[in-house]
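Bump. Still looking for Inner membrane protein structure tokens.
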Amino acid sequence: MTSTNNPLNKHAIKTHKDYLGDLIGGSLMIKESQIVAELLLKKPSQEEWLDAIVNRNILQKRSDATAKRNAATIKKRIEDLPDEYLEQVAFGSTELSTQLMFAATLINSTLLADFMRNVVLDAKRMFRESLDVGDWESYWEDRCRLFPDLANMSDASTYKISQVAFKAIADGGYIETTRNKKLQNVYLLPEVRQLLLSIDREDIIAAMELI
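Sorry for the wait, here they are.
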């Protein structure tokens, strides 16, 4: 497997937490991401952020805790991206928003990006019809050798990470469902390619094009 020293990966990874990112926080959450992106474009203060997420409940969640947790996860994935990126997430088509949020999730979680570049790409090159749980399990074991602290995570956390990873891949269109994990082709939109090039993330393009 390709190591984290992949020349495409110009963004240094120092700890297992940096490598994992906030993948455990949830999948792509497209509708919620569009709402959060629009809010972030307004450059809200902390008070304005909490008012929108909790008091006005713009994400329409049943509890304050869920609203804050989902909003925080999305914010971590996109807050450092340029306004043009946020605008496309907020106001673009569903397909565009989906691809951009998948890209943002890969930027946030190099663990998932490497899984796409290595395991998913290899499966496609071998003309496999689907992924399986074993693909992730062997990949996780490999990553634990690179970042031993990953092996210290609880079984519940590692299980949730695997579930979220496959859900994100399914939401991104790369597998048909999380149940059958049947591989599908995804064609990167020109707008997505251009935005990723503009922020020097050719490594993410490679993780999404899988060719």
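The first helix runs from residue 16 to 20.

Edit: fixed formatting.
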